[in-house]
Structure formats: structure tokens, C-alpha cells
């Protein structure tokens, strides 16, 4: 889309607009256009917006720049989608005159979820991905964990990844939230596809290198150029260097 068209598009008419949020109310009240948020006026708009609106505004702008300017979504967020979910958080609730463990609690006391790759653990807020209130997205994540993890007895340590929440069927029913999820699913799939293609090329090059090495050993052997010893221990690079006088 041409840049001059951006002034004609109200943010409220984009698929990333979420009403009834701090940011949603702000862009609606100010009648902001896409140009306002991805053009030179954004810094001033950001500066004079209220502090508690800014995080949602940042997420919204990231999505708009991705949609209208073709910018990549943040690499660190795409990597986090491949991290496994951790369900080690535990909450004790007072019920029937004693404390009982609430095994369905999946958030920390400050509203974050835990993700981990190998032995490294990290924490994030779901609102890092969605321009909304935690009250809009956290109950859905809790429902996802109950149905897809706890009800299926997958345990505290499971092979469920953050991307699985984004692909969850019930999230597709969320008119305002799913466009965010879909954008990240597409970016994640593209990233995985890129990695797979590079891995294939790498394996192909290794196979070619091995074939070349075997051919070279054969030639050396036929011409009596191999040093004495086990062929498996031959350092072809060193033999070539000596022959070339390197």
C-alpha cells in the first residue's frame, strides 16, 4: 500500500484495533490514523500519551508497522514462541478452613507466565504480544492450560510450547485478539521454514564434502601419496596444505 493512503485509514478500522482497552479508547478518542502511528508524528503522540497506555500503544504500533510497512516482527518474541511453557507456579487458596493448592494456577503473583528453553527460564506477560489488558488475555491462557495441559494430565513439565496457545482453536474465535496471534503464527512458521531449509543445505554440503574427501583419498592412494597410518585418522586438510606448501 502506498504511504499516502495511510492518512485515509483510521486505526479503529484496522484489524489490530481492540476496543474497550486503554489504547483502544485513546486512538478512538483522538481519531488517530495509521499514518499518525507509523509516521513522524508518533514520537510526539507517544510522549504525550499516559504511561499506562504506552505499552499497549507500542504493541499496536509494532503490528501496524508489520502490516503496512512490511517490517519484521521482533525476533526475540518469535524465538519465545518456541519456548516450552512452565507450570511450576503454585497458588494456595483458603477454602474449607484450610489452605488448598490450586493446581490450575499458571501465573506468577505479578501476572507473568514462565517459559523455558533448555535450562534457561524466562518470564513474560501475554500483553507483550497483544495490545490489550491482561484481563482480556490471561483468562484465555488459563483456560488453555486447564484444557490442554492439566485436563490431559500432561504434568508440570510438558512439551507444550507458547506457540501452541497461539494456535489454540478457541483463540481463533476471539475477533480482536486472533489477528495478533495469526501474525505471529505466520512469522513463526516462516522462521521454522527458514531454519529447515538452511539445515537441509548444511546437510547437503556435509554429504558433498564427505564424497569429495573419499574421492581425494582414493586418488592419493592410487598415486602413492598417502602417509602411512589408518585412513580414518587422516587429516586431509593438513595433507593438502603440505602438498601446496602452505
* Sequence of secondary-structure elements: HHHHHEEEEEHEHHH
- Determine the number of helices (DSSP H or I, runs of at least 4 residues): 9
**Spans where pLDDT lies below 50 across 5 or more residues:** none
What gyration radius follows from the Cα positions, in whole Å? 27 Å
The pLDDT mean sits at: 84
Helicity, in percent? 40-55%
- Major sheet attributes: 4 strands, antiparallel
The assigned structural class equals: alpha+beta
Q: What's the shape?
A: elongated
Question: What's the arrangement of secondary structure elements?
Answer:
Elements: H1 22-29, H2 34-38, H3 42-48, H4 51-69, H5 75-81, E1 84-86, E2 91-95, E3 98-102, E4 113-117, E5 120-124, H6 134-150, E6 157-161, H7 162-166, H8 178-222, H9 236-244
Antiparallel strand pairs: 1-4, 1-6, 2-3, 4-5
Features:
four-stranded antiparallel β-sheet, alpha+beta, 246 residues, 50% helix
Give an account of the 3D structure.
It is a single chain. It contains nine helices and six strands, in the order H-H-H-H-H-E-E-E-E-E-H-E-H-H-H. The protein is α+β, with helices and mostly antiparallel strands and 246 residues long. The strands form two sheets. It has a four-stranded antiparallel sheet with strand order 5-4-1-6. It has a two-stranded antiparallel sheet with strand order 2-3. A hairpin with a 2-residue loop joins strand 2 and strand 3. The radius of gyration is 27 Å and the shape is elongated. The termini are far apart. The relative contact order is 0.09.
Amino acid at each position: 500500500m502506498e504511504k499516502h493512503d495511510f492518512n485515509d485509514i483510521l486505526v479503529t478500522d484496522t484489524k489490530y484495533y481492540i476496543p474497550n482497552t486503554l489504547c483502544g479508547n485513546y486512538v478512538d478518542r483522538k481519531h488517530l490514523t495509521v499514518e499518525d502511528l507509523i509516521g513522524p508524528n508518533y514520537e510526539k503522540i507517544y510522549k504525550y500519551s499516559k504511561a499506562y497506555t504506552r505499552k499497549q500503544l507500542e504493541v499496536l504500533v509494532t503490528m501496524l508497522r508489520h502490516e503496512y510497512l512490511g517490517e519484521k516482527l521482533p525476533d526475540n518474541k518469535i524465538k519465545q514462541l518456541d519456548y516450552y511453557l512452565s507450570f511450576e507456579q503454585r497458588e494456595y487458596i483458603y477454602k474449607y478452613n484450610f489452605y488448598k493448592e490450586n493446581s490450575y494456577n499458571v501465573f506468577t503473583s505479578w501476572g507473568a507466565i514462565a517459559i523455558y528453553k533448555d535450562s534457561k527460564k524466562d518470564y513474560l506477560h501475554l500483553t507483550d504480544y497483544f495490545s490489550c489488558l491482561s484481563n482480556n488475555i490471561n483468562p484465555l491462557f488459563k483456560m488453555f492450560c486447564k484444557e490442554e495441559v492439566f485436563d490431559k494430565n500432561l504434568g508440570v513439565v510438558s512439551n507444550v510450547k507458547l506457540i501452541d496457545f497461539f494456535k489454540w482453536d478457541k483463540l481463533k474465535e476471539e475477533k480482536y485478539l486472533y489477528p495478533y496471534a495469526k501474525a505471529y503464527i505466520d512469522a513463526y512458521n516462516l522462521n521454522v521454514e527458514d531454519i529447515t531449509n538452511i539445515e537441509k543445505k548444511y546437510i547437503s554440503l556435509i554429504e558433498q564434502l564427505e564424497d569429495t574427501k573419499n574421492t581425494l583419498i582414493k586418488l592419493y592412494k592410487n598415486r602413492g601419496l598417502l602417509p602411512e597410518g589408518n585412513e580414518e585418522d587422516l587429516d586431509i586438510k593438513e595433507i593438502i596444505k603440505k602438498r601446496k606448501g602452505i
